Amino acid sequence: MKGKSLISITDYTKDEYLQILNTAAGFEANPNQKILSDKVVASLFFEPSTRTRLSFETAANRLGARVVGFSDAGNTSVQKGESLKDTIIMVSSYADIIVMRHPREGAARWASEVSSVPVINAGDGANQHPTQCLLDLYSIMQTQGTLNNLQIAMVGDLKYGRTVHSLVQAMCNFNATFHLVSPEELKLPSVVKMHIKEANLEYHQYTDLADVIPIADIIYMTRIQKERFSDPIEYEKVKNSYVLNKAMIAGCKPNMKILHPLPRVNEISEDVDSTEQAYYFKQAENGVYVRQALLTTILGAK
Amino acid sequence: MDKETRELKVTAIENGTVIDHIPANNVFKVIRILNLENNNHQVLFGDNLESKKYGKKGIIKVSNTFFAPDEINKIALVAPTATLIVIRNFKVVEKKQVEVPDEIVKIVKCFNPGCITNHEDIITRFTVIDKNDLKLKCRYCEKITAKNNIVFL
After folding, report:
1. Which of A101, A226, A234, B15 fits a 20 to 30 Å CA distance from A162?
2. Do A106 and B120 touch (CB under 8 A)?
3. Touching check for A105 and chain B: CB below 8 Å?
4. Across the interface, do A8 and B117 touch by the CB < 8 Å criterion?
5. What is this model's ipTM?
């Protein structure tokens, strides 16, 4: 994987994911390893992000790399009308690797084609966010001890949630059974279901969250956003139906863990935070280890 | 064979390419896709000609011009029924149906308004994921442009 950009979750094979997850476990055990002290990481955030940017920059810092970049495009030459291509050509002559988030879909793939150094996609519009997917896989593996043969429940906005789409695609490699819980308007798109069918795996669709709690090994919660609904009345009807609270998870499997890509708004009540099942903050922490694994693997230090 | 076609056959070309059975009204699109506006050789075309097979059809004859398979297959997007006929010394030396290629480069616009190719100067590239129903997957934003949404650049 040395020198190989990561733009879409499909760019890496199953074995390559597993290699990254193994390397990440090493960083969880021993996070401060100054093995990239001669490297410069460019962190180009053309749109703001809290978790992803801080997580990447923390990962780079724990590896001893220097970080250059910007956290929004406001004060850069992009504002003056510079093309993405020119920005990337310039930055790739300065840095050893580029981490980028951009509001346009496809921006990261384009950047990887014009860049002379590898690019890691930290989110391109509604398209891909492969490092989130890898940290989700890592979190599933750490909590369940395996990625194989699991009952995965996905809850909330399954239509627009890119993290859901990538995770479904990735978990198709591991014989998962999918339990898809969403309002009618926000069901998983057929192009994503196609991956499940191609892998000959099972999926079940629900509108009631309570149905999946006793069977799930993982409940992956997502935020339902008002602006996704064509009819505001529909939103009012469903907005409180996909909220998880402590009382609801009483009958869950003992190994069940709740994941959420964050930020959470109200879809997981705060009384869940102190339960054994809450894993979302640890999941965000895992992002640092996974990104350490990616930076070092792509730069050839691991 | 209908009258118009026979007349066109009379003006048969010595060497070159005939593209027959183009769906009526798509002749101009084919001309544009093959960039025949900038061709210096003789170009003859007819549209809305009678066809036994399709009711109406279009035809294009280009002298002294031969197309690489990739190039000619681009027209399959607008003329899936087209037949390609290669003429040398007034004789048909090759006759075949056009085929939808595996990749479409440069000629189609990505349907997704948020795609980077609609905001920067980038050559569009699509993988054809369904040749019968024409579904094109953008190499950049990974969204599907379906048959009804295809717009030519």
Report:
1. A234
2. no
3. yes
4. no
5. 0.90
